[in-house]
Structures are given as structure tokens and as C-alpha cells.
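Two quick folds needed for the group meeting slides. Do the first one here.
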Amino acid sequence: MRPVHLAPNQPRQFYRGGTKIAAFRRFDEGVDVEQGPEDWVGSTVARFGSDEGLSRLPAGGLLRDAIAADPLGYLGPAHVDAYGDDPSLLVKLLDAGERLPVHCHPNREFAQMHLGSRHGKTEAWIVIGTSGSSPTVYLGFTTDVEQAELDSWLASQDPEAMLGHLNAIQVKVGDTVLVPAGTPHAIGEGAFVVELQEPTDFSVILEWKSFGLPDIADGQLGLPADLAIRCLDRTAWPAARRDGCVTRDAASRGLPGSASGTVRMLPEAADPFFRAEEIIPGGATRLDASFALLVVLEGTGHLETDNGDTVDLQAGDTVLVPYDAGATTISGSCRIVRCLPPLPRS
């Protein structure tokens, strides 16, 4: 097995975006710059209620099928022992061409009970680009919200009331934000992020009318509305809770637990769901064997495996590294986000 480049994979969305993806990926054609705000990288899952979104390998076959045929080769024995043939990871490039609606995602317990999935949808954002004077994301309610008040917002479809009760957080390149499942949130216009998440497309949308969705049923996962909304965390997010999920300039200063040649980008609370590290540019960085998805942020470089395979790297590339590629060495002047699945459970 050898590392391979992955082509853009943009299942059509209801919100606008895609120009930053096109520029980043260096594609003049084949990238949707209107309704393609998400590039699903290394995806083994489809959009909810659809067959769109599955990644294909350069030879044309689905990555999902290739992993199912050789899970040990792609994922490694420790991962397979813990998770079977499920990579337990989805990575996206997300270009918010307009503000996303206020929404939330179910946690694992809710998903297992009501959606037949062992994955919920905890996610994290690594900000890699911004535009506008004050790029902003929204995370968690500022105060406890009673069910009657929430019902009133849903009935009136009042975006000002919803946004006004969320923590508004201005972000810049290098910041990271962990979004636990259940948290009400939105990404503001102008934010361009690498998103790591549990591998599902489970979203409960609170704000549908202004985005052209006909009614509440379009964002409730096929569940009764009063059931779907139970996955929402209505409790307050005071400053300490909010700040514990936001890391300023993570790429520059790193977090405890960074390995040699890398910078850890997400707090330990993310480890049961996914991990991310930035490869430090310059010199040569040796990385242990692992299933990984690489996003090359800038510069050029070179990846070499212990098996003797080589891959050239440049800004905008997304690269799949199978476990059986073995340990790899990355050299050059490129900056890379290495996205990894959760650590195997004991």
C-alpha cells in the first residue's frame, strides 16, 4: 500500500461556498464554487439520506470498499481491534460562503438509541483562512435556555434571537475550536476551516426558513421534531467552558503531548473522537505508521515511506496514507495538518 492523492469530493449543499476550496485546491475546473462549500476528504460515509459524499481512490473505486476489503492494511491491527473496518474519522474542507444556520449534532448515546449508529457528531475546526473584517463562529448558549423559549424561537424562526443567545467568537488563522456533540453552533461567513468530525452526517437544524429549507422536517434526521431537538444542549456555556474548547494560535504554540517534529492542535478532550497535529516545516519529520489524512496548507515538500514509495506535496493537496505504507518521513518547506482517527480503546 502507498499514499495517494485524493481528488475534490463536494456533495452539493444548501448553503453557499466553494471559491476558497477552488483556490486552495488549485483546480480551475471540477470544483463547485456555488453550492460546494464542503470537500469531504477520505470519506467512507454518505450524506444523510443520499449516496453522495463517498470518496474515490485514483483508480476509481470507493475508499469505503477498499478499506472493507483490507481493513488491516488500511487501518492497522490496533485500530481494527477497537473499531473494525470503520476509520472512525471524516475530514472536510469547509468554506463558509455565507453564515451557516444555527444547528447541533447528536452525541453517541442519542445516535445509538435513535439512529442506529455508534457515532454521533463531535467535530473540530482548524481555521486555515478568513475573509471579512471580523470572521466569527458561534458556540454554545450564553445562558440556560428553557424549552418554551426554544420552542418560541423555532416557531418564529427568529435568527437574531438564536444568534443573540450564542457565544460569538472571532477567529483568525491558526485558531482551533472543539465542538462537542449537542452544542448549538454556527460558522460565520468568511471562515475557511479544516474540519475533523465523527464520520456521520447527522445535523439537527434550528434555523431553516432563511436558508430556503421548506420546513422543520428537512433538518430533523427523519425523527419527530420533539425527539430530534432533545439532542440539543440547552445549558449555558460560561467563559471557562467556552475557552476550554478554543485554542488560540494552536499551530504556533502547540499543546501538551506534541510529538517530536509535530505540533498537537486539539485538546485531549478530542482524543476519543479524532486527533490533529501540524507537521513542523523544515528538516525531516519521521511519523509512525498510521492511517492518516494529510492536508497540505502551504509550501512544497516530499513524503517518503519506509517501503520506498515517494509522494510530492504542495499546497492544496489532500493525501491518504494507509497504515501499511509504514512509517513515513516528510521533508521540505511545507506546512501540513495530519488528521488521525481516535486512539484505539484499551
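Then this one, please, same format:
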Amino acid sequence: MSLAGRRVLLGVSGGIASYKSCFLARLLVEAGAEVHVVLTAGAEAFVGHVTFEALTGTPVIRSLWEPGQALAHVRVPKAVDLIVVAPATAHLLARAAQGLADDLLTTMLLATTAPVLLAPAMNDDMYAHPAVRGNLATLRSRGARIVGPVSGALAEGPSDRPGRMSEPAEIVRHAVRALAGGGPLDGKRVVVSAGPTREAMDPVRFLSNRSSGKMGYACAEAAWQRGADVVLLSGPTALPAPDGMRVERIDTTAALADAVRRELPEADVLIMAAAPADFRPAVSMPVKRPRASGPLTLELAATDDILLGTRDARKPGAVIVGFALETGDAVTKGRDKLARKALDLIVINDALEAGAGFEVDTNRVTLLDRAGGVVEVPLQSKAGVAEAILTAVEHQVDAQTAVSRATT
């Protein structure tokens, strides 16, 4: 998650969660941002300004009345790319919603034209209060982005209701997305499939494969961070559902095919990173067959090819991305699939190559596009590979947009 070259104003208001804002400041700096911190008087009761100056390397502005800073309340918010308020207490949210300018931070919120990201944090009963929910609705209607809160431990004890501030890494993730506006995927509907499917032999056993879903989830995350409206169609995985996108859990290849067909009419991009089973038991037994019954012979039937089945249902101008995991001669086989399935882009890798394929955190792929372009993506993390894939997708989106404009 890169914020290289970006200037971020971090506003910290007076709640116990302000200690986590120290970690947030550090993560923003590590992501490449130039971070300027504004503390409210309440925040300074919890965390001192020297801590933030040490973490960010920039002086902390603490008051409207600091000598030499007479215009800081206007100058600073106009010079930053993003304002993040974490924690955003109930008191801060109320003042911001009313448009008050009674301290440095609220004044800066009025003076900025940059995106604003708020991370609420408070007691769970306070967060549930209609006044707080109304203030958040008002701020959303004015364009503010909200991350969290989540359930979990509060200062007064554990809670299963929201109130706890989102973790710093999650706030950084939303900050990256907030600054992604204007790119080729901004506001586009991107549908990503991920993980394996399961084909039942009986109520207990199934046929599947070794897909972990990591590559598909990384692609969904990369698309989301670039501003896309992401729908993730996930087979059975151990991965947590990413925040900010719609996740639909599926089990069988047929269920995945149905989900893809439902999403296609609105999909600007379809990334088929899932590894659906190619075969299923011809007959699924209604009860578990005990081992004592002796040897078992299974008759297998081919499942439907999902991408082939989408050719007539695709949205005009949609970018369709396939994956080809092969064992030997992967590029030749992938090129055949690119043409046969009428894809815009195909991601090819070899399951036998060390460090690539299933059940690992790295991958090495070759990208082929329908115009004959070839991109070799070296072995790296699947997150890094996903960034390369989404960059190639953006090129395809740009090309489709150019064609559409030329024909109109």
C-alpha cells in the first residue's frame, strides 16, 4: 500500500484510542506519506505532541493561537492530499457535522477541499445513539469517508457491538483508496472470483483442489485500493473477508457459474482467479458410504466452463481476465485459452514451478493480452503480482474506453 509523495494530515481527538494513532502515524510514514499531525486539547491529555513529532519528523500544530501559525488553519489543509481523523470521538463528529470551527482541527476540516477519512471510536452505547448516527450520516452526505468502528475490547471491557476504532493498518488501507480517485478503475464494478470449488461425493466427502484463494483475494484488494466497486466471489478458503467490498461465499462450480452470470450485466471487469473443479462426481451419494463397503469406483463428469459460458452475457466493453494454471508448456496452453474463450487478458503460471501456484505466498506469471502483448512478472509476493495484473487491467480498460469514444 503506497502513499509515496502524498501529504496526509492526521487529526487526533481526545479518546483513549489516540494511543493507536501513534501506530497509525508510523504506518502512514512507512507507506511513504509526509504526515502532519494536529492534536486537540483532549488528545494531548492522552498522547503528547513530542511522540508524534518523533514518529513523523514534522512539527505538531496544537492550537489556533500558536505564535507564527496565524494562517495554519487555512494553509495546511489546502496543502494536503488527505485528512485522516483517528480517533474521531462523538464530540468531534458532532462539532464537524454542525460545521463548528471552535478549535484548530474542526477549522481545518472546514477549510479543506481534500478528501476526509474519519475513524470513529467511542463507547458502544454512544456509537448506537441516534445523535451520533445522524452526525455520521450528515458527514457522509457531505463526502466524508468512514472506516469502522468495529466490535472488540473497549476501555471499559469487551463488547460485541461496534465502537472500537479500526486498526491502524485498516485505516491506512482506506487512506490509499481515498487517494485513488481519477484512475481507470475508479467507480468501476470489478468482479473477482477466488479460491477452489467443492464437488460433493456424499454429505461428508468432496472433490476439490489446492487453491488457497490468496491470488484472487490479492487481485480483489488491489482493485479496491484503486477505487473500484469490488464484488468478491469466494470459494471455500481460510482467508478473512476483506472490508469494504461485497463478498459472496460459494461452494460448487455450478454455484460459481450462477454467481458470475448474476454479476456480469453490471461488471466492467471480470477477473476469474478462482480454480473451479474441472470434474465432479457423476452421482452424489445421499448418505456417507462406509469404508467397510469395500472399494469404490467414481465416475466423473466434466463441469461447465464458466468463462466460455459468459461470452454472450458480457457487458459491452467489459474487460475479461482469465487465469491458466498449467503443468508444462503453460504459455502455449494459455495463448490457446486466450483466443478460445475470447479474453482480453490471461494470467499464466506453471503449477510445477517452485514458489508459484497453489498454497504459497508468492507467484510468477506471464500476462498475455489479445493484442499480442506479453509481460513477464518475476517471482514476488502475490500482492505484488496482483498489482502488476491490475496495472494490465487498467491498460485494457483505457483501451476499451478509447474504442468506445472513437465509435461514438
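Slide caption for protein two: The chain has two domains: 7-178, 189-283+299-407.
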